Amino acid sequence: MRSISKRGTIEPFFAMDIMAKANALAAQGKDIVHMEIGQPGAPAPKLVREAAEKALVDGRIGYTDALGIRALRERIAQHYDDHYGVTVSPDAVAVTTGSSAGFNLAFLSLLEVGDRVILPSPGYPAYRNILFSLGLEVVEVETRAEDRWSLTAEDIRRVHAEKPVKGVLIASPANPSGTIMDGEALKSVVDVCDELGIWFISDEIYHSLEFGMKAETALRYSPNVVIINSFSKYYCMTGWRIGWMVLPEMAQRSVECLSQSLYLCPPMLSQVAAAAAFDAHEELDLVKAGYGRNRAYLMEALSKIGLGDFMPVDGAFYVYSDVSKLTNDSMDFALRSLSEAGVAITPGADFDRERGHRYVRLSFAGTEEAMHEGIRRLGDWLV
């Protein structure tokens, strides 16, 4: 008898489900404000689009090295010196088909079936779903307000003592909260992973999207960490599906071989375009300034409509708001917000299986006009 693999019976990514419902409503002619996904409202920078156009005009778009075009790997390595003052060899850089491919490659190259991996909760649901599909055991650790909703070295030490873990994955700035770990907190987590022989995977895809508090790269504290980053967020290149990893030497060949067989190489056109993104900071910082205005507006406006209890919004472009005074079912709340107010938001059930029924995530990555309209609609709906 035929059946599908248990690996495919993962939970849905509710943000994507909400987006699909919102798009279906829009196709029917309903005006929808999108605050459900972390997609910049601005297009890719002009320099990026011009580089892609030139590549198309100049000739054939074909395969590249599995780890990416050498020039792009060198430019990414230079970025670490320019932005963080950290030296990275281009040989340590692997260009990937978005950060999503980076997570798959990290899990496959570093971990065995049955290994235990610590994730903070709330956290990005795709981590949990991918790990489950690969036969890994997810250990979700609930974060606390007193630790600024971040995983601590003590958490890792405690869980590892109960039963050994093989990996820890942390994002800073975090999704869904936007909270940043300061350098001391991040170093303590990296140090305990080195001490215990645990792989530390650092999701840094929201770096450069910071509002006052700087996000530090885990590479500053150890050469043994695995970094995953992307051109999607700060660089406004979501649909280009291009990201990168920085790898310790022992993992580089494994990731290369896996890349060769899983998808041959990242798309060449996106790689050529991405190299130009590092020269577009003037344009990108204007976009970021718009996020800053959206953030300031939401932090004030949400309080006025009863959604003002949220975690620290240090970076990224999300507000993770407690709606428990209004509902104990964030999924129902999000569906009604979409159908009744025309505003797409993401239920906290995506990010926290224990407490997510109390929260919703609102993205402020869209235009300022969209943010004002979304809050106006939510306010009218909640009255």
Description:
- By secondary structure, the chain is an alpha/beta fold.
- Helices cover 43% and strands 13% of the residues.
- The protein contains 12 helices and 12 strands.
- The chain has a 7-stranded mixed sheet, sandwiched between helices. Strands 9-12-11 form a 3-stranded antiparallel sheet.
- Strand 3, helix 5 (125-133) and strand 4 (137-142) form a beta-alpha-beta unit.
- It is globular.
Characteristics of this structure?
single chain; 7-stranded mixed sheet; 3-stranded antiparallel sheet; 12 helices; 12 strands
Element string (H = helix, E = strand): HEHHEHEHEHEHEEEHHHEHEEEH
Fraction in beta strands:
5-15%
Span of the ends, CA to CA: 54 Å
Main sheet specs: 7 strands, mixed
How many strand segments?
Answer: 12
Uncertain spans: none
Q: Which overall shape is indicated by the principal axes computed on the Cα atoms?
A: globular
Main-sheet strand order equals: 2-8-7-6-5-3-4
Task: Count the DSSP helices.
Answer: 12
Helices and strands: which structural class? alpha/beta
Provide the helix percentage. 40-55%
Please state the average pLDDT score: 96
- Radius of gyration equals 20 Å
Strand-helix topology:
Elements: H1 14-27, E1 33-34, H2 46-58, H3 70-84, E2 93-96, H4 98-110, E3 116-121, H5 125-133, E4 137-142, H6 153-162, E5 167-171, H7 183-196, E6 199-203, E7 226-230, E8 243-246, H8 249-262, H9 268-277, H10 281-304, E9 318-322, H11 330-341, E10 343-344, E11 346-347, E12 359-363, H12 368-382
Parallel strand pairs: 1-10, 3-4, 3-5, 5-6, 6-7
Antiparallel strand pairs: 2-8, 7-8, 9-12, 11-12
